[in-house]
């Protein structure tokens, strides 16, 4: 009985005095993230994996929220990630973008040059710097983080915050 008491005390003491996880340790793992860009009528839903070796992988969808047309794209990315202070930076080196438009949108693109131009513009932006050594850098300012969620704002090249709201929820291990 005395032996179990000592072991329990040691284990409990170790849990109480264990160092809290760093933001980087909390960020590692798999996440489902949704982001809304109201100024450009775009929403994203992605599954991200931030690995301990600094590599990252994501797969998701980009969808426009326009009243008359729904452009939808599947986006797969791999790259490298770092966390400095409250800024999560991902440099994407491999990027695959695929159009996933509903039939109504495909018909509109084929009959309306303005819709076709919009689709080509979105596709070009999403594919920018894909598969290059330069990569495409995405910086996110973390607003709140705990074990299971974090909120982000995307940063522009100059460090200012874009009109974007994002929230990520940790995927539980299977």
What features would you highlight for this structure?
single chain, 174 residues, alpha+beta, eight-stranded antiparallel beta barrel, 26% helix
Give a quick precis of the structure.
This protein has 174 residues and is an alpha+beta fold.
Description:
The protein is an alpha+beta fold. It has helices at residues 2-17, 23-27, 103-111, 113-127, and strands at residues 29-37, 42-50, 55-64, 72-84, 87-99, 136-145, 149-155, 165-170. Strands 1-2-3-4-5-6-7-8 form an 8-stranded antiparallel beta barrel. Helix 3 crosses helix 4. It is elongated. The protein starts with a helix and ends with a strand.
Measured as a percent range, the helix fraction is 25-40%
> What is the count of β-strands?
8
State which percent range the strand residues make up: 35-45%
Give the oligomer, counting copies of the same chain as homo and different chains as hetero: single chain
For the biggest β-sheet, the strand order reads 1-2-3-4-5-6-7-8
Compute the CA-based radius of gyration.
Answer: 21 Å
What does the largest sheet look like?
A: 8 strands, antiparallel, barrel
Q: Which class do the helix and strand fractions yield?
A: alpha+beta
3D shape = elongated
Average pLDDT, rounded to a whole number, is 81
């Amino acid at each position: 009985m005395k032996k179990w008491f000592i072991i329990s005390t040691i284990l409990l003491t170790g849990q109480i005095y264990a160092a809290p996880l760093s933001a980087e340790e909390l960020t590692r793992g798999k996440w489902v993230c949704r982001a809304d860009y109201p100024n450009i009528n775009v929403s994203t839903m992605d599954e991200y994996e931030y690995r301990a070796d600094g590599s990252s992988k994501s797969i998701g969808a980009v969808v426009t929220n326009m009243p008359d047309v729904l452009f939808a794209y599947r986006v797969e990315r791999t790259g490298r990630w770092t966390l400095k202070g409250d800024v999560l930076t991902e440099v994407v080196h491999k990027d695959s973008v695929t159009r996933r438009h509903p039939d109504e949108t495909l018909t509109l693109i084929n009959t309306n040059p303005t819709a076709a131009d919009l689709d080509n513009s979105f596709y070009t932006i999403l594919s920018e710097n894909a598969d290059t050594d330069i990569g495409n850098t995405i910086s996110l300012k973390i607003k709140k983080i705990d074990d299971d969620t974090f909120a982000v704002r995307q940063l522009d090249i100059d460090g200012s915050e874009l009109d974007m709201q994002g929230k990520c929820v940790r995927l539980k291990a299977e």
